[in-house]
Design a protein that fits this description.
Radius of gyration: 21 Å
Order of helices and strands: HHHHHHHHHHHHHHHHHHHHH
Oligomer: single chain
Number of strands: 0
Helix content: over 70%
CATH superfamily: MFS general substrate transporter like domains
Distance between the termini: 25 Å
CATH topology: Growth Hormone, Chain: A
CATH class: Mainly Alpha
Amino acid sequence: MPNGTTLEVPAGAARTATPSNSPARVLLASLIGTTIEFFDFYVYATAAVLVFPSLFFPNSDPMTALLASFATFSIAFFARPFGAIVFGHYGDRIGRKATLVAALLTMGISTVVIGLLPTYETIGVVAPLLLALCRFGQGFGLGGEWGGAVLMATENAPEGKRSWYGMFPQLGAPVGLFLSSGMFWILLHFMPQEDLLSWGWRVPFLSSIVLIVVGMWVRLSITETPDFQKAIEKEERVSVPVVEVFKNHKLSLVLGTFVALATFVLFYIGTAYLLSYNVKVVGIPFLDALEIQLWGAIVFGLFIPVAGKLADRFGRRQVLTVTTILIALFSFLVPVLMTDNEGRIFAFVTLAMLLMGLTYGLIGTALAAPFPTHVRYTGSSITFNFAGIFGASLAPYIATYLQSHYGMAYVGYYLLAAALITLLCIFASAKGKV
């Protein structure tokens, strides 16, 4: 047994028949949870550009306020590994289902509280501190959500369809992005700027409570995954999964973190940073900038299923390798397309989100594959969230700094460096483990 430590199972538990989940129920449960989580996450990202600089950092010049807002945005990425460890621990010990419900509640409550926060004008410096605390809660919840959703899908997948099943929770990212951007688009379209800054910005955060109720209902209707049931029957569970991961799976952890690096850098350059660039640098009206982001979300979502189909046919490793090479080549187009020309910006977001769909659609399955069932929740969650720290947490900040100090070409070099590191780690990973 791993670490020589097992957990006691009540007599007869291994022999108890467990109702099987229907494919539709499994895939809906994995998709709706990540949709809610990413909706909450992206609502914050949009508000970080649109309203938070003036509402929570009003005493700074516009660029400093934006950078401060992006700094609070990054807090969630540093919280995510802690969520991965805590929720991963219970996900590998008591099961995927209960842990997923707890993660969903943590993320959702944090988001709703943001919608209730007083601003700097009301309580001064305490306001941004409370905002940062809620952002930490969002990251903590998402740190436990993603890994469980991926395992709910892949551990129920039939032979030969693991990549196809594994792409369903990944669809939550573009759907959540579309819903969050769409909600702000509606608010901007029908609400005066003064009302938006006064109270309208709270609506997307408070509306999350409806999505939470729906997500809870779907999640509570599913049963445990077959793989986890087998781990119980074979008495494979360990007392402290995170210790097992860092003791016996360090290489998978490190390589997996950087296999996902280019995915995260590409995504946050093509979303949070692009939105900021279009509004603050190019001067595109925020309504039009959101329409560009909505189009990107559609392209992103369309190519995630393409990735799942290609991977099951040609191999996940091969598709990831080719896609990462294409991301490296795309980096040279960044200074060409990121100009003050809206047509070129549309071309940029189309290509960026096409490539994003191809890589992100496979990352969930790829990061879960190297870990055995009894530490898979913990291992895949920590890997994904470490990648978030290195690839996503500071990406909007770094891209904004590079563009303002050295020019757009250096934003491209930043993406190129990430792609090359990812390629090296794909090649270094054992065949079949990515």
